[in-house]
Predict the 3D structure of the following.
Amino acid sequence: MGMREPKIRSMKYEEFKNNDYLEEMVKELNANGTNVVVTTADQLIDWGRSNSIWSFLLGTSCCAIEFMTLGAARYDMARFGFEVTRNSPRQADVMLVLGTITNKMAPLMKRLYDQIAEPKYVVAVGGCTISGGPFRKSYHVVNGIDKIIPVDVYIPGCPPRPEAFYYGLMQLQRKIKLENFFGGVNRKQPKPVEE
Amino acid sequence: MNTSFLDYYSIQPVTNWIHETLCSVMPEALAIFIECVVIGVIVVALYAVLAIVLIYMERKVCAAFQCRIGPNRVGGKGGLLQVPADVLKILTKEIIRLKNSDNFLYDLAPYLVILASILTFSCLPWNKGAQILDMNIGVLFVLAASSIGVVGILLAGWSSNNKYTMIGAVRSGAMIISYELSMGITVLAMVVLSETASISGIVEAQANGWNIFKGHIPAILAFVVFLIAGNAEANRGPFDLAEAEQELTAGYHTEYSGLHFGFFYLAEYLNLFITAGIASTLFLGGWMPFHIAGLDAFNNIMDYIPGVGWFFIKTFFVVWLLMWIKWTFPRLRIDQILTFEWKYLMPTSLLILVLMVVLKVFGLVF
Amino acid sequence: MDIKNKISNIVPNAEFKEQGDLIAVVPADSLHKVAEALRYDKEDAMDYLREIVGMDWGETLGALYYLESTTSHNRIVLRTETSDRENPMLPSVSDLWKTAIIKEREAFDFFGIKFIGNPDMRRLFLREDWVGFPMRKDYDLKSNELNMSNEVNADTTEEYSLNPDGTLSCKHNVVFNPEDFVVNIGPQHPSTHGALRLRTALDGETVKKVDPVCGYIHRGIEKMNESLTYPQTLALTDRLDYLSAHQSRHALCMCIEKAAGIEISERAQYIRTIMDELQRIDSHLLFYSCLVLDMGGFTPFFYGFREREMVLDIFEETTGGRLIQNYNMIGGVQADLHPDFQKKVKEFIKHMRGIIHEYHEIFTGNVIATTRLKGVGVLSREDAISYATTGGTGRASGWSNDVRKHHPYAMYDKVDFKEIVYTEGDSFARYMVRMDEIMESMHIIEQLIDNIPEGEYRVKTKPIIRIPEGNYSASVESSRGEFGVFLESHGDKSPYRLHYRSTGLPLVHALDSVCRGEKLADLIAIGASMDFVIPDIDR
């Protein structure tokens, strides 16, 4: 069975970069073969999840302002199903890390990530979250949040343009569209230890 | 006034026919049981569908107010499937269990909220003969049932073991209990006008003119007061203190995820619908068509629209009014809200009641 | 009487340095006496403490006190030091200027200098369990590993006092009692505008006390500056207060140009001034949006962003950046204006003048908005000066503190504009100051836009700039107050110490006294009306 292509309305599959990454991911997920009925149910659920990405903003600096632009009238992210931003991590699907994460903030970011209900995704926005950015050499900046929490999509830029946000969020949608809800884990996480 | 259209509107014959057919093949008790189940399913389904419609409407309406487009990508033109996608997502989302919280009450709270909402919902007069719960003290039952919701909110806030939820819940409790007074008193004024407390009776009393026209000055005032109090009851802006995103992150349901959060979300929108539905029942004639005395041709055309249609037109008009208010005004502060209720709104509603009684006694209403 | 004579009269052995700023070197034991005399001077009271800059001079640790008079706008710098590196102590001036409380905390956090008599000697930016003082020259940058354990905040503060025998005694002041209902607002909260944490004690809905905890976005920019060359340091100023990116960078460029003796062309001056004012409009529009959003009004939020996009378009055409433009350079600006620049700016101003009434109709005149803002969060003029809350917040309290008026730079002495001052000091006045400043900024731009002279937009400078030894400073009126740059050069290609005056830190500090007794919802509205940007506070 060939790979099911994640479709984003009015965008061509080839127009996205990193398609090989998705193909790799699908191969891994479907290593044990898939059931037709389950796949159809999966597709329905994935359609729902990918079109209803409610974001939780961990906005610490500049990138957060550019994200506000995304919500405003010109870029209007409501069109794509990113409309709702929840301020409570319990009700969100994706944590957008917008801005530098410092040593003091890092434990809090981890805690907020833990509070998000499954399935959860993380988007690292801006140079600072990806690698430390311009503050890489500082004594108080985490050089890349992927050292602390798993990241699904990186959106580079300082700050990224609103169009870049869209590209990144669409990449996330594509990734979600390929997930298996039944009989598969998308992210191998150790089980939390009961205290 | 010509009231022959009432019989034409009634769906009583249809329901009677169904009942008799069922009774002819099975004992009456079983028939009633089956009918109850069917109606229950219909109510829940209608509830869910209406919630989806309302959420979609809210998104589109607020987008229009804010010079935006709103959802337009998911599922064909106009983003019609945006809300179903959200629902599907919420259904498959994890329900988080909290440590150090009162688990029983924590789980109970969303069901209480949704229960209150569905109970009130089933009292709405959809059409002549299509009312699910109809009793001679209907309006009082609506008031009583709707206040179960506040118990759910208080429990949610308390059992989450979180300071934000606690503040949100207490705010909500203080506000809803206060505004219930104005709401109750304005409803009483309309009961005085209609001479009955049964919801179907109130609607039928408006066959020769809607209450808002019959009761003129006090009725219009009562309509405004009722809308304000109803808006507060439904916890919507500018009275959305209990949620107050910018102050309390998500208010009393901060700690709820997945379906439990979905219940609160649903109830919020349905309470909006219920408030609008009761307002249109009490003031705008429920399922009664719009008639102008003397213009028979016009009235006949109006009669072509079925009662359910009228009910939805009126209710969605009031819903739209409430949305307009929400998306225009900034939020009030808790002390301002309580001052407003106790110092201005409640005396006004008492005055309306007295005025209505006086006018009714002297026959000055139509 | 000359200020030098005044100081010499009190401390005969005071020295004066005049490389750059006028600095009076005062021994530590007579610092408080001098400061008090200057603060309560009959003719020319130095009642505005601009900044305390902690310093590490190798053998000695010390501080620079930048003072200014609010009547004559004269400035003076006091310098004091202590040679005890193990247990450095300086007298506190927190009884003279309230803003010194938090500024001394900052110096303690970075240099470990204990200020005797300051009631609040906790760390300000770093974790309470942080080891060492990062701004000291001998600090090992790798000495603190990333600590993923949750931080525990003490409920008491330390106050040091000196015993007669020279030993130090420590008193604990209580911040929160165990029975207080303390709510954490932040660091992740929708209306703290970034990662600020306000520990708030509530009595029902009433705010009893606010204790701001900063440092969640402390990126150590000042320490990084010490290993960067001057042109490299420019890049970081844009990321301080991203809504005053032009102005902050303007200040740093001005300071370096002044120190290195670089003259910039008039064209560049015009461009800088216009860009500064556009940036101010951009920032104030965002202020409007955020204030309204924080008060629960969703629709007006979109109004502000609608016009703000037009400003960002203008920025983007010329500079290539939307939010962060990296436009000012040492010696001028990065690139010449886009050919459409003048046309677009004029169109924007025409549009803005025609549409601003919508802003006022939907929000300013709204009865809910006025009752929630008027008479709420009053900051008196004395407090505003004592807390050094510059910018719109100070001007709303009746303190005329516009740097553009009192210490004109770029083209500001050539244009005609009004300083917006209100006297009420409440949230509504703070809001109106910003709304009026939008109009005033447009007025300034209109005077300049047609007269931009031809010429070089940038003077060529060497890639490595050496600045002669001395202390230099420059300040601009950024979107939310006086942004200052304080530079100490030892003649190298990178600064010995480069400190920025945060516009937001005094505002956050004043929050406690302004919010006490108000409601929780007002705390949010007051915070929004003060208009602080957190990365600028934490640096």
Notes: Residues 98-361 of chain B form one domain. Chain B has a mean pLDDT of 82. DSSP finds 16 helices and no strands in chain B. The radius of gyration of chain B is 21 Å.
